[in-house]
Amino acid sequence: MAIIEQHATEFDTDFIxxxxxxxxxxxxxxxxxxxxxxxxxxxNFDQEPxxxxxxxxxxxxxxxxxxxxxxxxxxxxxxxxxxxQSYFKAxx
Length: 92
Fold this sequence. Notes:
alpha+beta, Glutaredoxin, 4 strands, 4 helices
């Protein structure tokens, strides 16, 4: 099972946010999710560096945050902070 799918089944939250410690876009993404009343699990690559390559291989997204919508039957890779804002503007 791929790492994102594993985390999607492991965490009963609306979103999964892969982040790093000193990332202003990660802070902004978490703030937006909180303001919208959406739950999320944060997985910090600084604390779990082995996960970074697995997530990059699965998403082709090399920067943080990596945001996953976990509200549906299968997890949906959104992208980073900018993509998340567009995603919400589109009504998701």
